Amino acid sequence: MIAMGRRILHLRFGLPADNDAELPERLRRLLEDITPRVQMIEPDMAVLDLTGAIPYWKRDARGLTELVQLRALAHFGLPSSAGCAGNRMLAAMACALTPFGQRTVIDDSPEAVMAFLQPRPVRELPGVGAKTSAMLGEYGLHTVGDVVDVPQLTLQRLLGARAGRALHEHAQGRDTQVVDPTPTPASISSEHHFARDELDPAARRRVLLALADHLGARLRGSGQVATGVTLTVRYADSSGTRRSRTLPEATHHTMLLACTAYAVYASLGLQRARVRSLALRADALRPADRATRQLTLDSADDKPLAIEAVADRARVRYGRQVLYPAALAISSPPPSARHQDGGGRPKDARGRRAT
């Protein structure tokens, strides 16, 4: 009998180091032949909602998973590992434990879910980083099985209301993420052209902050996070320098984007350079619900994020110029930026196409 419950398939492909840039898109089209609900998370990773495809193909979850893996291998020579379960979290965890060429299918029954989850280290749950895992370990909570019987209120006292509630839900095997087939741009960027060749390092730093603030607001507004940034500097002689850096954690927060941009800029040693323009790009975007944030015991770290949330609400209601970082008040109005989605033409700060 074919199970009719929700079935999510998480796939990881063994892409070659010199793979064709078009391969991820061709792979997406292949997967969409199985089900239209395909979300490419990374070039080598995809999530499929098989719920509607199972009755169409007249196969159970394991049989359809095997079909997907065989097609990827036959068409592109790509080995894959697969995890299939009743929600995205379980499917991703199962896939991470599965070698290439194999598959792990978790049955819908509560007993099967708990049998899979309880022995797993708590750090494998979404949102549990090294610091959170270490803190839980101090209380003897090393595995999901240790956490599952802890009352939600206790976890909230340890981790905070939101993180504690999320950990409690995940330890029970519950996850509400859906497969979103809407493609997201691989990157977004903002650029500032100086009115004259800029020699002042402080002015350049203010522009970097403005660009990071602009990118952060756009990322938060679209529900995405970046895993890296790229800084492009253009000089008076029309030459340029480009440097990329991976972020300490996937983020959409202005503070973290700006700090990384400052570090990249400082590494270039441009104290005497005549800079004509600066461009900052947020790379390798992914849905924000897949991001984790390391737990900190310093409450001061949360203040900029709280202010950021207030600023976002004010900007939505009154416009972008109503509230911005104090460092940008030196230049009035704050430095402007053109922005661009990956693969698109530049837009100005109000979303109009640049000419």
From TrEMBL:
InterPro entries: DNA/RNA_pol_sf, DNA_pol_Y-fam_lit_finger_sf, DNA_pol_Y-fam_little_finger, IMS_HHH_1, Rev_trsase/Diguanyl_cyclase, SulA_CellDiv_inhibitor, UmuC. Poorly processive, error-prone DNA polymerase involved in untargeted mutagenesis. Copies undamaged DNA at stalled replication forks, which arise in vivo from mismatched or misaligned primer ends. These misaligned primers can be extended by PolIV. Exhibits no 3'-5' exonuclease (proofreading) activity. May be involved in translesional synthesis, in conjunction with the beta clamp from PolIII. Coiled coil: none annotated. The keyword Aminoacyl-tRNA synthetase does not apply. GO terms for biological process: DNA repair. Residues 329-355 are annotated as: Disordered. Residues 21-129 form the UmuC domain. This is UmuC domain-containing protein. The keyword Phosphoprotein does not apply. Keywords: DNA damage. Residues 338-355 have a biased composition (Basic and acidic residues). GO terms for molecular function: damaged DNA binding; DNA-directed DNA polymerase activity. Belongs to the DNA polymerase type-Y family. It comes from the Bacteria.
